Amino acid sequence: MRSEDIAKLAGVSRSTVSRVINNYSNVPEETRAKVLKVIEQHQYEPNSFARALAGKKTDTIGLFAISMNEKENTTRIYQNNYFAPFVDAVVDTANARGCYVLIHTVYSPDDFLKVKQAFLQKRIDGGIIVGTQKDIDIVREMVGLDSPLVLIDYDISEIMSEHLDRNHLAVVNSKDYEGATEAIEYLIGLGHAEIGIICGRMNTYSGRERYMAYEDTLKRHGLPLNENFILQGDFLKETAYDEVKKLLASGGPLPTAFFSSNDDMAISAMEAFSEQNIAVPEEMSIAGFDDIQMASRIQPKLTTVRLPIYEMSKAAVEKVIELCDSQQPTFSTISFPARLIARDSCQPPKQ
Amino acid sequence: MRSEDIAKLAGVSRSTVSRVINNYSNVPEETRAKVLKVIEQHQYEPNSFARALAGKKTDTIGLFAISMNEKENTTRIYQNNYFAPFVDAVVDTANARGCYVLIHTVYSPDDFLKVKQAFLQKRIDGGIIVGTQKDIDIVREMVGLDSPLVLIDYDISEIMSEHLDRNHLAVVNSKDYEGATEAIEYLIGLGHAEIGIICGRMNTYSGRERYMAYEDTLKRHGLPLNENFILQGDFLKETAYDEVKKLLASGGPLPTAFFSSNDDMAISAMEAFSEQNIAVPEEMSIAGFDDIQMASRIQPKLTTVRLPIYEMSKAAVEKVIELCDSQQPTFSTISFPARLIARDSCQPPKQ
DNA sequence: CTGAAAGCGCTTACAG
DNA sequence: CTGAAAGCGCTTACAG
């Protein structure tokens, strides 16, 4: 069934059929009704490719999740507790706005070709990239494609200094620095003076921000920065588990609290401690970041920093759509607060 | 940049450009190289819509997650521990096969229009539907669209009796009945005689299968079926929590073990019990179904039935692609085993 | 081996 | 208000 067929059946031309489909105002109500009736009777839907070819939008946005450093065969991306809610929220919002979403994951630099193709082949009106690593070259390349693009979680100052701030681009961030600061000050307020950190991947924006907040806050409070208490994680639970075990095995002194750069690692750390009979929170306080679903379902319930993922995703979707609609290349950026959710995994240090 | 431009630059016709893009054999190596060079220089990618219009495939498959009974504003679909891994695995497999995936969620019957449109508008070559409820009318309608379609988790006998088994259709299931049977027999083997169940949504195939396994197995072993121990759940954690609390509040006798139709509910039940100081597994054994990520990270680690989601998803993707490629309408079905993973949440009943 | 031409199914000036 | 026509960017018989 093509518009031609509908036209014949309704006794009009394809032009008219097209006009009613596209809601042109200059179609008499009677004609419109006649055409609409035939369309409904036959469940006609215009071929989306033909429409797109003829200049309409695709009504599809791309969602690309970058997860370069994930190890093979371990947690994949949607089981990744960080990405899953973004995917969830983006699809949700986009669907509600009548957009389809094309999803692609990127595990290696080669996979990037696919996301470039999605743009170049005109499969999508615009795209959202989440989880970009610190790699201004890739960002430059993507921005160079000159399609509406929204980056979730990327260092704005880097974009500014590279003068990438005047294309069809928007950046949506969360205030990780402030959120992490709040968590650490909470720990300090509880009386902790020896605070360790499990780092995230330092080549991501959030990984660095969360770490910097840790370092700055300790310094500001005149607290020692003990190298042994700075565990090199990568956001993955296995690594955090191993690092904690290693610290424990070393037999050296322990901090009284740990701030973990994400919940997944915080929970592994809890496991590692409890296996060594170090009670959380009695003997060791742990705070996480992200507030993943599991955080409130384990024992003790995890104190963490909540990321406003839904709001961020929604903003990202609205931004791409806005960029698709507007002619003027604009650059914009928006940052959402991340706030502490105090639960049961932290308490004052033992005397 | 269009094929026309490439053609000019390479000194050939569009036809030839198209031939090299589509890997026709009758292009001399020299010509091919010349064209390829220009293509690469300009990062040219053929417009996917034009290709599709001209008869090529879209190289896109649809993934539709149906979640009709989810309550508003509560767990959305990708945070849904059942769907997330399917999405993960499907995207993964499809991407690896060079396919894009178009995702859409269905929360209400109205949303179904969108999935129909995706087919009708020819946006995708074929689709995968996961989470279809027992609604043969919708299935009939989808199958009637006459596009390659794979159903994950649907009652095959229903399809057979409706004679829907000769279209571009495939069904991918897991052996929930056998898996649930294994779990219940394990409980029985441990010595439990009073076994309760937390039901899933009975309008889904897996909800019914898991329940039937429970009923049949108890009967086969001559064990009593106590109505009070049959909790009406719907796969959602909140409902399970409430139901367990209600049972506890009733003050009536308790079973010594519960089989929960999914892990999410099993974990809620554990919470509810522990809040009433009923120790799991000492005083109450609990077995779940799905083996979600959280199952092995909570205390006690949950005994559950593992669903081979990755294999199922992979089969689904391969099946749609196969259906897209083949001319003959075929019907096929494949069923994957689900097996018990015994962990720490079950033990023999207290004397 | 390769180009000219028709066709895929739409949309949108253009002309009336 | 509405139809004929051009055009979107490809692919693929067809003819040579």
From TrEMBL, chains A, B:
InterPro entries per record: HTH_LacI, LacI/GalR-like_sensor, Lambda_DNA-bd_dom_sf, Peripla_BP_I
Statement: the UniProt record of this protein carries the keyword Transcription: yes
GO function terms (MF aspect): DNA-binding transcription factor activity; transcription cis-regulatory region binding
Residue ranges of every copy of the HTH lacI-type domain listed in the record: 1-55
Transcription regulation listed as a keyword: yes
Keywords, in A-Z order: DNA-binding, Transcription, Transcription regulation
SUPFAM superfamilies referenced in this protein's UniProt entry, alphabetically: lambda repressor-like DNA-binding domains, Periplasmic binding protein-like I
CDD domains in UniProt: HTH_LacI, PBP1_LacI_sugar_binding-like
Pfam families listed in its UniProt record: LacI, Peripla_BP_3
PANTHER family: HTH-TYPE TRANSCRIPTIONAL REGULATOR GALS (PTHR30146:SF109), LACI-RELATED TRANSCRIPTIONAL REPRESSOR (PTHR30146)
The protein's name: LacI family DNA-binding transcriptional regulator
